Amino acid sequence: MEGRVVAMIFLLMIILVASPSPSSCARLTGFPTTTTLRDDDSIGVYVDQVATATSNSFNNKKYGDVFATPYRFNEYRPLSNRQTSDDLQPFPEADGKSTFDVMDYGAIANGQFDNTQAFLKAWEEVCGSTQDIPTLIIPKDNTFLLSSVEFKGPCKAASVNFQLNGNIVAPNDTNGWGDKGRWVQFDQVQGLIINGGGQIDGQGQVWWEVCSKTNCKRPTALHFDRCDGLRLSNITHINSAKNHITITSCNDVQISDILIRAPDESPNTDGINISTSTNITIQRSFIGTGDDCVAINSGSSHINITDVLCGPGHGLSIGSLGEDGSYSTVEDVQVRNCTFKGTQNGARIKTWQGGSGYAKNIIFEHITIQEAKNPIIIDQKYSDDSTAGFGTLGDQGSAVQVSDVTFRDFHGSVAGDIAITLDCDDHCGCENIVMDHIDLTSSVPGKKVAAECKNVQGYSTSLSPNVACL
Question: By the 8 A CB rule, do 298 and 276 touch?
Fold first, then answer.
């Protein structure tokens, strides 16, 4: 009898040891080490998988409450009474790795070896990972040469991180390129995060020299196509052959704390070029190039630009719109708390005669001007010397409609003679243009600046210089 009791106890011990506890089956290899497990070891849903709840602060959380991690916002969903331990699924073990260093894939950091294939191998692993935020790492204090490369999505994870701690450089001759239209391209990568404090060098000097003699095709440095949820921050970007950053067909983009720089004489080196995109935020950044600091092109709406220092360059432009008779639209643009320093233009809207469409619901306010030549411009008769004589100039009988535009609280010094230019089309003109509290004076002591105005309807309050037609 005693022997049977001992045997039964031994058997129960084996069963208890072999049975996994709910907390052990729910833990994730590589789970963020910066968070702490709840001391009561309770179980909750972490995004779409099950894990021990993180942080003691969740004791009072309810279903759907949002909490912050160092990586992103996630939902903590405590299990309902209808769920049992049978509903719990362990985290997958197959993808235990969440960081992918390009050096582990054969990248050589001498600034001369072409690392395109090594980066693509690393990207394939990142894009195929199912970890929370798989991360491609370009290590600090290293420089990697890349020729034209495309990082393709969609990826398996909801968000992926391109962590640029080091530097990437473009080839320094025009023959070292495959796609001469684009250098580094991201295509259909949802939830893409690019950060890290590193630098992107387009080495555009060779292109500027060659293309000044011939009309050659030059590559955009960083191109995002259909990358919804893009987060770009904390990088330096210099000397692109053409546009530094191009955003097309994207939604929900945030760009912050970046530095973009190229010489004032570098041709067509826009800082950020936006087209057919919505819900774009640019903030706390410095952009100085040889062309527009930011250019907002057709198909774009809900654009917010705040706390940007622009200069040198051509200012911040909406357009050009309506080229070659095209239908173009831009709407719901807000530009606030920005400074234009030593730029050719400040706040500018430019549209071609002969086009159609509209630019409307646009606000420029709380703008500081520091020796900009043309601080405020609406040019509904825009022309480009390179296309003169091709049928887009002169009286075309139609124009892109410009309406509901506000310029408010502009102050500072003007390097040119004309502080305000409103040159609108003879047929449709510009409607509901508001000039409110403008105080612009010449950077030359004692010199006066003027305003020019044609075919404009609207009103003004407290203007210097005065705008006669408002």
Answer: yes
Phi-psi region of 30 (alpha: psi -120 to 50; beta: other; left: phi over 0): left
Q: Which residue in the block uniquely carries the two structure tokens 């060098």?
A: 201
Q: Can you tell me the distance from the alpha carbon of 292 to that of 350, in angstroms, rounded to the nearest whole number? A: 12
Please list the helix, strand and coil fractions of the chain in percent, rounded to the nearest 5, in that order.
15, 45, 45
What are the residue ranges of helices labelled H in 19-47?
22-25
Write out the two tokens for 312.
């040198």
- Report the C-alpha gap between 351 and 177 in whole angstroms: 34
What is the SS3 assignment for 226?
A: coil
Cα(204)–Cα(182) distance, rounded to whole angstroms?
12
Q: What is the pLDDT along the chain (470 residues), one digit of tens a residue?
A: 555 554 555 545 544 444 443 333 333 333 233 333 323 333 332 233 323 233 333 233 332 333 332 323 233 233 233 333 333 333 333 345 799 999 999 999 999 999 999 999 999 999 999 988 999 999 999 999 999 999 999 999 999 999 999 999 999 988 877 778 899 999 999 999 999 999 999 999 999 988 877 778 899 999 999 999 999 999 999 999 999 999 999 999 999 999 999 999 999 999 999 999 999 999 999 999 999 999 999 999 999 999 999 999 999 999 999 999 999 999 999 999 999 999 999 999 999 999 999 999 999 999 999 999 999 999 999 987 544 433 344 556 789 999 999 999 999 999 999 999 999 999 889 999 999 999 999 999 999 999 999 999 999 999 999 999 89
Residue 296 amino acid letter: I
CB under 8 Å to 470, separation ≥6 — which residues?
433, 435, 453, 456, 458, 459, 460, 463
Let me know how long the chain is: 470
Q: Token pair of 99, please? A: 């960081």
E strand or H helix that includes residue 118: helix 116-128
- Do 206 and 173 form a contact (C-beta atoms < 8 A)? yes
Taking the mean position of all CA atoms in its chain, how far away is CA 205?
24
CB-CB contact of 272 with 248 (8 Å): no
**Which active-site residues does the annotation give?**
291, 314
* Nearest-angstrom CA–CA distance, 440 and 412: 5
